[in-house]
Write a structure and sequence with these properties.
191 residues, mainly alpha, Substrate Binding Domain Of Dnak, Chain:A, Domain 2, 0% strand
């Protein structure tokens, strides 16, 4: 074998095992995990109108809280982030909208606690259970997204696959979820 053939074979072997397939596969996984995150947030948004309508029947004078939930839902569903355009700025907008909706739902649940008849309502209890399950699904989907982003970011930034990325793929790191400042604050418990 000639030296150039041997060198070409060695370079081909090196490149095939250093990110040519793993980087695009990891990118596809990040996009799939992001789609699942959005799917779970959509599930939550779809449950909210039913929950609000049940509460409306019991708490007509809590109109401000109900309107706040509806408004927060509208804002959260208006922020649509495509997996191909994930960047820190779009991620921050998405997270802010979802945090606002979470806070509004929290206020709605506080209102629900004031009405014993509402807490006994079968429809309300079913919706509340679905919402709690959805919040758990969101948590799992976010964790899986975080793990897939970590794997992808390692591939595009750590040698030797980072070399393949810089020569072939030219992909940037993906942004991670971060907890909003309001979510990081220690809750105050009062008796």
């Amino acid at each position: 074998m000639k030296f150039s053939t041997l060198a070409l074979l060695l370079i081909s072997l090196l490149l095939t095992s250093c990110g040519l397939q793993s980087i695009p596969q990891a990118n596809n996984n990040v996009e799939a995990q992001w789609a699942e995150v959005q799917n779970q947030y959509k599930r939550r948004a779809d449950l909210i109108p039913n929950l609000v309508n049940v509460v409306k029947g019991y708490a007509k004078h809590e109109q401000e809280t109900l309107e706040g939930v509806i408004e927060a839902r509208a804002k959260a569903t208006a922020v649509n982030v495509d997996a191909k355009n994930l960047n820190p700025e779009t991620m921050k907008k998405f997270q802010e909208a979802q945090t606002g909706l979470s806070q509004a739902l929290g206020r709605l649940m506080v209102v629900a606690e004031k009405y014993p008849d509402l807490k006994a309502n079968e429809s309300f209890n079913g919706l509340q259970a679905q919402l709690e399950g959805t919040e758990n699904r969101i948590s799992v989907a976010r964790r899986r997204y975080i793990e897939s982003v970590q794997e992808f970011n390692n591939l595009v930034t750590v040698f030797p696959t980072s070399l393949t990325n810089s020569m072939v793929h030219h992909l940037d790191k993906k942004p991670q979820f971060t907890a909003a400042e309001t979510e990081q604050a220690t809750p105050q418990v009062q008796f």
